[in-house]
User: Fold these one by one.
Assistant:
Number 1:
Amino acid sequence: MSGNEIIKIKDLRKSFGETEVLKGINLSVSKGEVVVIIGGSGSGKSTLLRCINRLEPFTSGSIFYNQQDILQTEMVRNEIGMVFQQFNLFKHKTVLENITLAPIHVLKRIKEETVKEAMELLKKVGIEEKADVYPSKLSGGQSQRVAIARALAMKPQVMLFDEPTSALDPVLVGEVLWVIKKLAEEGMTMVVVTHEMGFAREVADRVVFFDNGIIVEEGKPQEIFNAPKSERLKQFLRRIS
Ligand code: ADP
Ligand code: MG
């Protein structure tokens, strides 16, 4: 196993009842790599991310994080951040409190330090002026940027994004993709599920095409988008263009 590999997934299978939704996934992610997962609805993309983050138990196979079996290490939840389609902010907490909550209670950090870092993160995602407002006062794009800041406050080694812009008005998509792109440029290791093909082309080091619980094809963006090999991927690209 290469020392540069931060995540390694081996023959991962997952069933819900009788239905197998992950049918033997093999995927590695290197430090600093941006992997973009594309594929139709119901193909198992969210389930895969949830397994990586230990939000979902799996049926068989294994997932390693820094060469440790994720089922044997407690660090995974803290060190792998996740951002969802629905931002899931705490409604009754301010933006600042949303961001400092886990560092204070999970990491047992000193409050003043977490506030200082949270303000820096808000600046990074471009909404420092919203620190003291409640989530109901935010637009979707602002909410998602708070959710990203909240995940970053745990100082994750890897970020997982599950369709981070799918719930947003089209005009707000850009401000969230801008933040994710900036993270990529800073060298953050990321796995991003998205339907934003322009973003995938521009930011992905590798694009992975999921279909019906398996990885059908993977490669550099220009290979996947300009020279798709499988009929399934060709069909998918035709459908979304
Ligand atoms: P995607 O994110 O690619 O749209 P999902 O991973 O959400 O796909 O879902 C893959 C399949 O697993 C779908 O058929 C979905 O209905 C099913 N599924 C997902 N979560 C559950 C669950 N908690 N219980 C039963 N079936 C589920
Ligand atoms: Mg999904």
Number 2:
Amino acid sequence: MSIGSANETTADPVPMFHPHAPRPGDPVPHIPSMAHYRAMYEESVTKPDVFFGKLAQDLLSWHKPFNQVSHGNFHEGNISWFVDGQVNACYNCVDRHALVNPNKVAIIWEADEMDHHRSITYGEVLAEVSRLANVLLKYGVRRGHAVAIYMPMVPEAVYAMLACARIGAVHSVVFAGFSADALRDRMLDAKCRLLITADQGKRGGKTIQLKNIADEALAECPAVHTVIVFQRTNDKSVPFHPPRDIWWHEETSNQRPYCPCTPMNSEDPLFMLYTSGSTGKPKGVLHTTAGYLLGATATTKYIFDLHEGDVHACMADVGWITGHSYIVYGPLSNGATTVVFESIPTYPNAGRYWDLVDKHKVTSFYTAPTAIRALRRLGDDFVKPYDLSSLRILGSVGEPINPDAWMWYHAIVGRSRCAIVDTYWQTETGSIIITPLPGCTPTKPGSATLPFFGVDVAVLDPQTGEELKGNGVTGVLAVRNSFPSIARTIYDNHARYMDTYLLPYKGFYFSGDGVSRDEDGYYWVRGRVDGTFHSLFESTQDYIVRLLTSRSAPLDVINVAGHRLSTAEIESALIKHPACAEAAVVGVPDDLTGQAIVCFCTLKSSDLDNKTLSAALTAQVRAHIGPFATPKRIIITPDLPKTRSGKIMRRILRKVAGREVVQEDLQDDAILKIKLGDLSTLADPAVVALLINSVADRL
Ligand code: WTA
């Protein structure tokens, strides 16, 4: 079965944008034509060992060369690459450039304060990273130990990651917008014994009390014996508890500015990064050293078409995978200059990004559709005053980009002469897997276009798992055959890795996203499958759940402003509130953020009015997860729609929350049935009216 033809969603003729010839003075792209792309792609999927063997030798510096390129497969879940080789990620990102070109700028730091920026050379990065690595060694961190990093967007966050990589420690960066509870859960799960944090963070003129939040988390993490505190603001009121707490500046100043790199086996873990899964418990996606580094290095080189002198500015936070791969590992491994941006796109005004591009002569710029949409709304006048002529490549990541936002990015920011790269990938894939190549791939606004080298994309029938061959098909996005940067496991829970990614469709990696392949073979990623195709996928979900050994449903992940959130995680935050009896959370379409969070809650008895309760429940979610998970609406309702077996029917909640069914529809059963689908499994049909009325009350 196919779930609709690609043409349904791309009915209007889509303009094709053909690459321009390079401007005089601009470099010739690394992949100069579609013929080159096709030949390389063909080799990469038909002879992956030959292709990646060569690439790994060309792009990485090895402590010990490998003989075997790949081993294992998706059937067995035992993927490994370059197994008998040895490599160090920090050596590749720092030393090999610092040793030949110590004065080249590695990092440009653009602080939250508009007039405050700093350039740091590769030579300086080597010294700073070494000093910190020596501090880690002094406090007992050894190869294989997990280190938590909870830092603002300062160069020291990058040093912290690289210092871990240098000595073989496994970093677990926790986004600085996460709450104390979330930080605690992640430190406990990873069994961290050391935390690197800062006194405070600055963002959009606001101060974030990082050390206070960390202290709250640490109260329940007795295993963390050392906390390295970087002074960002030097606010004297920040609590400091020796001997557990030590100052970054004091400790590093006592250390030698060189620390030898530990040669790591290719498959030694490099880092873990927690991402939302379908259950309340976040999963620690684990990436290994050589494969991840190769993926990050190769994609950055080819997709941002890096050449000598280029300045790459990725606006993500190092707390997300985009920051790991495209602020830290990818650009630095290529010896490029990378921008670390501490602020937000609208501070002090909506020209901030463009001021940054102009000031630092940025050549490739990478951000999320949510930011593009928000800036577009604020008007072109914020873009116009700036000289953006340094830009060659504009990237988008994190969610589907709607054609209007794409066109604005292209015409207003790119002045119709930059390559737009809509890059599709995930925390689990480690690096970009579907993308145009600048100067090479003709683009269509809204399509991530074609697979990157080595990624053999398959569109599967969600129910039968059969591959939908040919063009003009829609189904679930899967990948056949492993590629170097794919995550190897979920930390301490390989069964969950198998259940989530490799068992739903035997022999394939299952992405959790829906996708269309149009008549030209271009991919259109539709987002997490529970969102876009919910009416169909409710049954698919049942199907997949049946396949799985675990009790978890794999698809309840929503994407809000490019951040992946689990509905179950938000629900478990809500029901911790004493007044909340039951909670069901759904994503609804939102013009700005792609999807927004709507929470339905039933109450235990409570004296509070609904407005006060909604505020309290919102605060509960912010405290449990973080401010970026703030619900758009909390709907207090007398009941939730359930099947006779007690399963919440989210399909109904989504439609009610998205106002696809309204009070007038209650008059007509036939209309209700058309809009809501089959309601025969609903235990109490009266609940539909209750819900619709609760939503109407709330407006
Ligand atoms: C979505 C972020 C459409 C998708 C790198 C995926 C996208 C999830 C795109 C991963 C894109 C990412 N077009 N959807 N270009 N890029 N997504 O793990 O649903 O935070 O599964 O990784 O974001 O989010 P994650």
Number 3:
Amino acid sequence: EKGTYPYYMLKEIDEQPTVMRRIIQEYTDAIGDTMIDEKIVKKIIASDRIYVVACGTSYNAGWVGKALLEKMTNIPVEVHLSSEFGYNMPLLSEKPFFIFLSQSGETADSRQVLVQLNELGLPSLTLTNVAGSTLSREADYTLLLHAGPEIAVASTKAYTAQIAVLAVLAKAVGDSKKNQSSLKFDLAHELSVIAAVMETIIDEKMSISQLVEEYLSTTRNAFYIGRGVDYFVSMEASLKLKEISYIQAEGFAAGELKHGTIALIEEGTPVLGVITDRKTAAHTRGNLKEVESRGAHNFVISLGSLSKETDQLIIPDVHPLLTPLVSIIPTQLIAYFATLQRGYDVDKPRNLAKSVTVE
Ligand code: M6R
């Protein structure tokens, strides 16, 4: 039930700190060690490459998961769209391991890939929010997201839950391999910090609503830009914006702008820059300057330690590997308020279904 909330999406955005704490509880013990089925960990350690297969928001979460998995496990990770992978399967490594990401566990595009893999006898794990769902039953292993029912078509808490559970999985494998970067990573503590930071951002929602009025209430298009994980967040942020507010929004790798996209910038085009990565912050700021000089209306979301006073939204610092869990929150609220202000139904956007059961 949505209780006093006007829309499920807002309720589900608000629930994310609780979901983070639930994941800590379900997947870590009192001293912060991970609790993941040993059989899954062993299978992954025995593999030479991880293939993440998913659609939509789950696919976008997969890219953040890749960064985490590679850092903690030293196993290369590829991320694929189910609808492409099934019909254009890449050359597989000798010992592949497959991770399906699916909130509903019913997505047909993902299922057709799993059916093919099962015929080949290849090992698979599904991360899903729905126990007993098709992708859960048909994969070898399942990890539940514990996000609680997600009703709004626009996925929010499933995205952050997928990233958090992938972080737990990455640490479980990394610890088992005695990788230093993994052993040093106090994930349970970092996730509890994340939960608190999510709360502070959610508390700022009315100022986000005002910024949306200023930047997005009448625009036809908008761009999110970032590098590395900030690019992955830009992809998800723009999917959220387009699917419910119908603003033509695209997420771009900031460095690619000058290779074509910058031609689209006109007087007043909103460009939302995501800056949470120290290595690339200066470069993304350079790209923002380039678009500004061509008329863009820049909106910067930055991490405290990398922020400038003129930035529109500043997020408290969190562990560098987990920044997408917090930088995504304002972008979910941006999509929510843009949709409200334009007068559309937040929970039920046109042409879309919550779970996509046709290929
Ligand atoms: O249930 P799934 O995670 O497999 O769904 C995948 C996509 O259909 C889904 O994430 C879709 O992109 C959402 N509407 C995004 O908000």
